[in-house]
Every structure is written in C-alpha cells, then in structure tokens.
Amino acid sequence: MAHSTTPPRDTTERGGASDTAAPSDAGVSRAERKTLRKALRKTSKTTSTKASNKASKKASNGGTFRVRLRRDRTLVLMTLPAVLLVLVFNYIPILGNVVAFQEYDPYVSDNGFVAIFHSPWVGFEQFSRLFEDSAFWDAVRNTLVLFGLQLLLFFPVPILLALLINSVIRPRVRAVSQAILYLPHFFSWVLVITVFQQIFGGAGIIAQTLRQHGYEGFDLMTDPGIFKFLVTAEGVWKDAGWGVIVFLAALASVSPDLYEASAMDGAGRWRRMWHVTLPALRPVIALLLVLRVGDALTVGFEQILLQRDAVGPGAAEVLDTYVWWNGVRNQDFSYAAAAGLIKGVVSLGLVLAANKVAHLMGEQGVYKK
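Now predict its structure.
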C-alpha cells in the first residue's frame, strides 16, 4: 500500500507570511506583538522629540557659554571699560558705608582707608542722632514735597512735547523745534538760575517793567513760599526737552499702518492719540516712572545749594544739602554716611515697590518677573 507524502509548507516565503501562518518562536500572540511595536515606536518618537527640543533650546541660548563668549567677544571687550567704571565708582565705594557704624576719624592715620580699621565702632549711634534731629525730618519733608511736584508737573511735560513734535508734518520745523528744546539741557545750573534771576528777580525784567508803569515790583527768587514751584519750573525748562528724546524714539517704532487703519475706521486725531499713540508709549512711561520713583530722594543738589541762602534752609533744605552742611562740611563723615545709607535703602525699596506695581499693571518695568 502506497502512502502519499505532503511536502512541508514553506513558512518563509514572500514577505514574512509566517507571521500569519505560524506562531512566534517565543510564543507571543499577535496582539502582544502589535502592542510591543506601538510601545517601541512611541519610545523612539519621545526620544527624538526630547533630543530635538534640547538641540533647539541649546541653539536658542546661543550654545554653550564658551561658544557665546567666543562669538560675542568683541561686544564684551567694548562693554568692559564701562563695567570697570561702574565697578570702581559705584560698587566698590559701597564698602565705605561701614563708617556709618563707626566714629570715623580720618586723621588717626595718614591713609584715609587705613583709618577705617582704627576708628572705634559705635553701632547705631549715628542713626539715633539722625532720627532725633528735627532738621533731618524737615529735609525729608521738603524732599518729598519737591518730588511730588516734579512728578505731577515735570514728568508729563516731555510726553506732551513728544506728542506735539510728533504731530508736526514738516521735517524742518520738527528739527528746529527739537534743537530749541534740547539746548537748555547743556546749560549749567549756574546759568539757568542766572537767567531766572534776570527775569523773575527783584532787579529782573518783569519787576523793572512793573515799576516803570507805576506798579510794585516783586522778587520771586527770594520768596520761600513759591520756592518749590520755582525749582520745578527751572527743572522743566532745563531738562524737559532732553526727556523728549526717549518718547520720540518710542513713537518712531509705531507702524503708520495703525494710524491709517484707525483713520479708515473713522477715528479722529484725539482718538488716534488715545488708542494708538499712548498705548505705544505705555511701556516707556512705566519704565521711566519706576526709575523716577527710585530718584525720589534726589531732587537736585547743585540747583538747590545755589539758591539755599536766598530763601533759607527752612524752605530749601533737602536730604542732599542736609548731608553736605551737617556731615561733609563739618567733617562728620560717619553722620553723613548714615544719612546717605538711609537714603540708598529707601530708594531701593521705592524702586522695588514701583517695579512690582508695574508688573501688576502688565508692564515689564526695570526687570522681568
């Protein structure tokens, strides 16, 4: 009896038909193999995504520090002198504030720096003297009043002048106007006060004209009641034009398309200024306002020192002149350092507080969050 033999079926033909005809060597089912392939693809995709994100992040950061330093070495060399100047004249002198806690005597040694190490420590005695002096609080009050007047009357003037100049169509008229406004910034305070004296003083043009017509003259330069307004007016005349530069630069970055689009929508001149121009100036205004608040306790040493004797210390004494007359001039350097240290700490706090308010209003301020 003959037996027929059937040849074994080829399990490796044409594109891996064995996957559907024969079980896996490891005995894994088809569903498990499918799940395993998906997991491998997902892992490969995640790894490639992380690698690409890392590469893009590294590229956005400019590479490693060594690469960035080699790339920007020219810029670093250009800024190095300015950094050294700031370090030498602004940061290293901070160490000298230690004399505020001493009874500093520069004559205990031939070297004023070495005298710091030989001066006795007195703790917070200088600060106690400062807080018990009524003249110090009078100077603080005058300083804050002057700052408030300058913030209300001086700070908006450059903004208004920038809007006015920006609305001038003729380039020649605009250039002449800017030059006239910039010019007083380069005058010294001696010259500025002399100009005001020749106009508003007792022997000035206005007073002489009034006397020639039978009226009584006046002398605004020696009137303590209006001294703070006079100081603010001098500051506006001298520096308002220079402050216009920053706002004009901000206005130059505004696209003309925004004005054209708002004009096509029926917006007039005032509405374009309110909805286009002022929003463009808002970040710059916030930044300059934060910086101005930081200088709240610095209201012009030279300007007020030149006019202090004319109106008396009761109306003209501010923190800077107080430090000069009661500290430096009397060689009480520890007392002067204590007053300067308080001023610096308060100014720093004002900057941080104003910057926090700018962040709450959605602006960047001096630094980002």
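The radius of gyration is 36 Å.
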